[in-house]
Design brief:
This is CocE/NonD family hydrolase. The protein has 15 helices and 25 strands. The strands form 5 sheets. A 10-stranded mixed β-sheet has the order 1-2-4-3-5-6-9-10-13-14, with helices on both faces. Strands 15, 16, 17, 19, 22, 24 and 25 form a 7-stranded antiparallel β-sheet that branches.
Length: about 600
């Protein structure tokens, strides 16, 4: 996905004026309330004889390339919609200063006002789009323009503010290094070409000469990746020579501090008044947050119409990859069966219902549809989580040698009879490598998804706890937590956890993972270092998934202190971490007893015993 985006940004706009059935008005400059103008491409059915409903996409990636990302967009025009694709403020052809996630409600509102008051518009507008285009829809919905009638946010999790998870840049206070640095290196540039002041901007962008100039920053990612494992992380992109961006602010700010709280993201107090169809993926970076904002749109709805018309579909793919499913879907290296669903047809039917008034039965579908990985089938529910979901504890235990999958770590539904602990050496200069998982836009060779973790599980700095082969299948659908009793020789360190499905042939596919920086164990407002060798009870949020552990499979939990380069390394010093270049080795321990239990909390669907 990442490399596709990078390549797409080097293309110039297709000359759709000559494409059958579609007419393009390129680079129309739409004025905002402060006088800044945003460049927008307008696509119309070539022979439209009536006023049209509008579909809006607001993008950070360059409007000229977005039209080619999804065949849905051209099809919408052919189906009788006016399609508007807009460069957000300060990006590509649009005027103003580019600051991530700022001022989007006002700009979105003003854009809707302009589009729905044109002579060719029928005054009804909907929004579509994935990733940034999805998150932009969330904040626009919160702006509540009366002509914005519906939304289809795809993979929009980064548009929802959850303390400590702002813009999906942290997990338990640990910086999402590969994803955030990769995204900023490719898409964070604050420097774009501007025409000379004596040249009319709109005339320039509509001229053939403008099509020859590509304002996207050129980044040699093979060069950039050589810097990913260097220190300090706050100046990583400066050393790599990428264009100026806000990356350093991201890397150095408190995960729940004023900088992130002031971003223009949807928050728990926001209200909404439109029907929405959410779509996301289990191997994306934010399935939990997408599910939460889906619930928020209903809970904080201003009308019964909005409250009763929130729908969500959770696919098994990686970021924005729902339509890539086939009869034999493979996500990463994990085979997941036939995960196809007519996403394009569904989105068109949704827009036809809310913008054209068609009675087509689209709202008769279940409120929640999710793909049960492992059993490889679509399931449905009227609620999230499913009504028959209940928490089930699986306890960690060992005889003190849970190091690696060759050790004696066990996972069982009953607490251990004897007290014990497992220790490992965490060296930040030799971190446990990332392999697959729930991420995006890293630029690395290993993309997100399910991969066999068995090689990583041979490391002695990875504690491995495995159940007996299951006699009966177990559906796990919902939010997962790990509760650990831990201690460390350091004043600060990280603990990470990974849920794994072990197949009978020994393959061990990652299901979900999470992390916690110990200084944030009691929250982000007042980070507090730990006392060396004192035991603390901590919670690691693995967030949501849906996986069927089939008969004969085993449930496994990995516990260690790194997952690099997905997450930055904790250097164990107790300092800022982001501006440090040297670390210290930590001796970290997981305790398991009746007095100091450590367990995995699974949301199990089915009858309770």
């Amino acid at each position: 996905m990442f490399r596709a985006i990078l390549l797409a940004l080097t293309f110039t706009s297709c000359l759709l004026a000559s494409e059958k059935g579609i007419r393009l008005e390129r680079s129309v400059m739409i004025p905002m309330r402060d006088g800044v103008r945003l460049s927008t491409d307008l696509y119309f059915p070539e022979k439209a004889n009536e006023k049209l409903p509008v579909v809006l996409i607001r993008t950070v990636y360059g409007k000229a390339s977005v039209i080619d990302w999804n065949p849905l967009y051209r099809e919408l025009v052919r189906q009788g919609y006016a399609l508007a694709i807009q460069d957000i403020r300060g990006r590509f052809e649009s005027e103003g200063e580019y600051r991530i996630a700022t001022g989007r409600r006002e700009d979105g509102y003003d854009t809707v006002e302009w589009l729905t008051t044109r002579p060719w518009s029928n005054g009804k507008l909907g929004t579509v789009g994935c990733s940034y285009q999805g998150e932009a829809q969330l904040v626009l919905a919160a702006a509540k323009h009366p002509n914005h009638l519906t939304s289809i946010p795809l993979a929009p999790a980064s548009g929802y503010y959850k303390p400590g998870r702002a813009w999906q840049s942290f997990s338990g206070g640990v910086f999402e290094l590969a994803q955030t640095a990769g995204w900023f290196a490719s898409n964070g540039s604050k420097v774009f070409y501007q025409p000379p002041p004596q040249v009319d901007r709109q005339e320039w962008f509509q001229s053939p000469a403008a099509a020859l100039f590509d304002p996207a920053p050129k980044v040699d990612f093979d060069h950039y990746l050589t810097f990913l494992d260097t220190l300090p992380i706050d100046t990583l992109l400066e050393r790599a020579g990428t264009p100026p961006s806000d990356y350093k602010l991201w890397a150095t700010s408190n995960p729940d501090g004023p900088y992130f709280r002031d971003l223009d993201l949807v928050q728990a107090h926001d209200t909404f008044n439109i029907p929405a169809l959410f779509i996301d993926s289990w191997y994306d970076y934010g399935p939990e947050e997408t599910l939460e904002v889906f619930e928020l749109f209903s809970k904080n709805a201003l009308s019964e119409r909005a409250a009763q018309n929130q729908f969500i579909i959770m696919a098994p793919s990686t970021h924005c990859g729902f339509s890539d499913a086939s009869e034999n879907t493979v996500v990463g290296d994990r085979p997941l069966g036939d995960a196809r669903m007519p996403f394009q047809e569904l989105q068109i039917r949704w827009l036809d219902h809310w913008l054209k008034g068609e009675t087509n039965g689209v709202t008769n579908m279940p409120k929640v549809q999710y793909y049960l990985m492992g059993k490889n089938e679509w399931k449905s529910s009227d609620t999230w989580p499913p009504e028959n979901s209940h928490p089930e504890k699986w306890y960690l235990s060992s005889s003190g040698q849970a190091n690696s999958r060759l050790g004696d770590g066990t996972l069982a539904p009953k607490p251990p009879l004897a007290s014990g602990y497992d220790s490992f050496v965490y060296d930040p200069m030799n971190p446990v490598p990332s392999l697959g998982g729930h991420t995006c836009c890293t630029g690395s060779d290993t993309e997100a998804g399910g991969y066999d973790q068995s090689e990583i599980e041979l490391r002695n700095d990875v504690l491995v706890y495995t159940s007996e082969p299951l006699k009966e299948g177990l559906e796990v659908t919902g939010s997962i937590e790990v509760l650990l009793s831990v201690s460390s020789s350091a004043v600060d360190t990280d603990f990470t956890a990974k849920l794994v499905d072990v197949y009978p042939d020994g393959r061990a596919f990652n299901i979900q993972e999470g992390a916690l920086r110990m200084r944030y164990r009691d929250g982000f407002e007042n980070p507090t270092l730990i006392e060396p060798d004192q035991t603390y009870q901590i919670r690691i949020d693995l967030r949501a998934t849906s996986n069927y552990f089939a008969p004969g499979h085993r449930i496994r939990l990995e516990v260690t202190s790194s997952n690099f380069p997905r997450w930055e390394r904790n250097l164990n010093t107790g300092g800022n971490n982001y501006d440090e270049t040297a670390g210290t080795i930590a001796f970290n321990t997981v305790h398991h007893s009746k007095a100091q239990p450590s367990y995995l909390l699974l949301p199990v669907v089915g009858e309770t015993e």
